[in-house]
What does this fold into?
Amino acid sequence: MTEALLKVKNLHTEFRTEGGIVKAVDDVSFEVNAGEIFALVGESGCGKSVTALSIMGLIPNPPGEITSGSIEFDGVDLLSLPSREMRAIRGSRIGMIFQEPMSSLNPVLTIESQLAEPLKIHENLSGNVANDRAKELIDMVGIPDSATRMKQYPHELSGGQRQRIMIAMAMACSPQLLIADEATTALDVTIQAQILDLMQDVTSQTGASLLIITHNLGIVARYADRVGVMYAGKLREVSDASDLYAEPHHPYTVGLLQSVPRLDADKGSPLSPIAGEIPDLTDLPEGCAFNPRCEWAVDKCRIEQPTLEETKPGKQVACFEHETVALRV
Amino acid sequence: MSTTAVSPEQQSIKPETGPILETRQLKVHFPVKRGLIIQRTVGVVKAVDGVDIQIKHGETLGLVGESGSGKTTLGRAILRLNDVADGSVRFEGQEVLELPGREMRRLRQKIGMVFQDPYGSLNPRMTAGNIVAEPMLVHKIFKDRSEITDRVMELFDTVGLNRSMATRYPHEFSGGQRQRIGIARALAPGPSLLICDEPVSALDVSIQAQIISLFDRLKEEQNLTYLFIAHDLSIVRHVSDSVAVMYLGKVMEQGNADDVYRNPQHPYTKALLSAVPIPDPKVERKRDRVVLKGDIPSPLNPPKGCVFNTRCPVAEDRCFVEIPLPQTFSDGRQIACHKVNP
It folds into this structure.
């Protein structure tokens, strides 16, 4: 694929809070190619979810606002679209799955009516046709006994099944892009594997791109083609997934990878945690926001903010010292 | 240590070599009630259903399992925070479940607990210093208040908190710092065993690693024994000497952590371990995985026979009828499965 499906350019999303303006997403640029799985990783407050909500046009205003930048989806700038046209795209050409399926589903509507709803709205299907299609979708996401399930309410399903329903709803109109925001974080690990495999399967069948938002580096390693690592509102490293793990070039990526214990490591293999705390977004350090926790930081890092630069084909890093970091043993 | 009568059986256990903590056929059952005013019991959830675990002095037992497996209930039952239906809990050779109230309080000095939620488990109206001092006041460990202050300061150093933070309130701390306060509080009465219930699952990855490293260091410095309850198998791998895998109230497999992780035998352990992605694409994408079908059954209505039979890839007729008992293998591992035999 030559042309990217989604192009996010210099996106700035801010929130006005009592503590001051929070730059939740600060000059973020990345592209998601057609058919690929792109992962945004980072810890709480890094801006990964706000990036996803910005793409969906779901930033609550006030207090939030996209102050500048562009989001181009399949050649169309989403930020300049009137809200009616954005509604036509949301839920039909871009689907989204959230962390907590119970609060994303309507508790007083049956599974059938919730699944049929996007089909009636976006595809103009009539009641019966939409219901038949809803049943097919339930079968597709691997929920047994679809005829019974259709008539049930969300509370009658398990967490994993609710998340399957969310995937069915998000895939109902065959979107070109599926966004999964911490979609498996609340699930048990055996269910998490089922749901992630399902998302990978359904998107690869339709050729859709998948944008995974997660804090779990294991999930990224298993599923993602490319990765963007975020910290304090900015993208710090964008890389092919395999390259990110083999040759991390940003000190934060290095620290993150050394912080996670591995299932296949020997007992007591040393962890090297990143020192210090995640900074408060209303009171960020001068220069690079990571500098107080960075072992490579030099004077320049405390004054100037590095921007994302290509360090080799397929890899972009925002760090003045990336060459030194890359050379470390 | 204790004023209760010591039975011959108890005398035979030497605290230095025998297990510091042992449960035998431990059962914790919760009644399920219906009705608004006049309640009647309509069922029983067997949250912990006949569990035997042992922890040796200075070792860490990792207790893993998914939601509803009973791992948290088991941890709480040891401190009698949940009523135990049946079985025994022995701490340093002493039967815990029969201790009178005063003795039980004394025991709680020796068993500390660290909880998951660093927000909910600290009193918001107390300063960090007072939170850490409280157990020492309750247990009347020091006569002199200034001794308590000294000890609180020492504990702040131990867990990596700045002494000047003692006058602050919980909301002024980050999640990781709050967990350090929780750990300092647990250490305050000088316990020999710490029960840690999901102590890092609410924390960010980089902060998790800090707290795990703190647990590592404390174990060395203070000769602590841990019961480490967690759902994150990679973290349990890092901290544990031995490991017990629970599913729907029962232990499926337990043994030396190296053995269990390198060569899992129970079909559930195999599936559980293979479901955890390894943060390394080169390794992860070449792994053989067993992805389980279906959901964890409701603990209210567990399957007959082996509780894992609804999801087990190798279940046979017998598994739907007979409950498999744990069998001990030559390497000391205990496995409860009809299909795995010594």
About this structure: Chain A has a mean pLDDT of 91. The domain at 4-85+205-263+272-311 of chain A is CATH 3.40.50.300 (Rossmann fold). DSSP finds twelve helices and twelve strands in chain A. Chain A touches chain B through 47 residues (CB under 8 Å).
